[in-house]
Design goal:
35% helix; mainly alpha; 46 residues
């Protein structure tokens, strides 16, 4: 599957592995998780 994704230029950014939990909080803005907060900050030039 990874090889097929490489051929189609698909990238997966995930906050956790399949067997891990990720958390959300109001302190990261809008109830997002820390991962999403940092992705949004980077995309907005931060």
């Amino acid at each position: 599957m990874i090889h097929a994704m490489m051929e189609t230029n698909v990238f997966v950014f995930a906050a956790s592995k399949g067997n891990e939990l990720s958390y959300e909080s109001e302190r990261w803005g809008g109830g997002h998780g820390a991962f999403t907060c940092n992705i949004l900050n980077a995309l907005s030039g931060g």
